[in-house]
Amino acid sequence: MTEQKQQRNSPRPGELVIAQVSKIMQFGAYCKLLEYNGIEVFIPIREVSSGWIKNIHEFLHNGQKLVCKITYIDNQKGTIDASIKKVMPKEAKDKLGAYNLEKRFSILVGKMIKETGEEKNKEKIDNDIVSEFGSYAQLYFDLSEGTKRFKESKMPKKLKDRLREFIDEQNAKKKHRVAYILEMVVEDTENGVTMINEALKEAEKADVEISYISSPKYHMVAEGADYKDSEEKVKSAVSTISAKLKNVELKVEKEKLKKDKEGIFDSD
To answer: What is the CATH number of the domain that holds 211?
Structure first.
């Protein structure tokens, strides 16, 4: 279970934290930790980047939110040092994703508490969520997976039902997209273009969008309820093309898609 950070007064060495730059100095920057009620940490200039820094303002600006790693805590002096360069890009992305999910889902749950007439019990419900799940982000994951912990949660039944409705709505909206590059070379050069166009028109009936790139390449895109569904549509389209064009050289290569803009509750 993920520990709710607000239960602790300060971070631990090695912990990844969300910081907001508050003051930039010649030899480093002071930041406030957003998960720890604005506790101040210092990032020495040598920990801002692995490369040589001529001007720290080229890397940091006031108000900037970033992910850093706690490197040193001096309990006697009450000072904390942190590092940006010790954070891997994937770690930063995952941390920011979890932080944003925590904020957004806590706001949504607050609205649902009001909608279900449980506003007077909000403080108790919040405490129960933290006690049972550790964080709102973890509640979201348990809700998505329909875990036993969620089903047996102390949350009011009306609220749990509303949360289930929400996740069902999210799943209904979600589409899984795949894309392929299709290369076709036909032996019949005289009627080749006509034959290809007819085959592509028939292939699109498999609910696949096909567009011309440049000879002999075409772009194929399919969407489905899940990736298996999307892949089956592409397979069906390719089978149709192969059946329509007897003497054709086919080459199909999967395209790596840039991830579509994430929904507000997507964490990865």
So the answer is: 3.30.70.1130
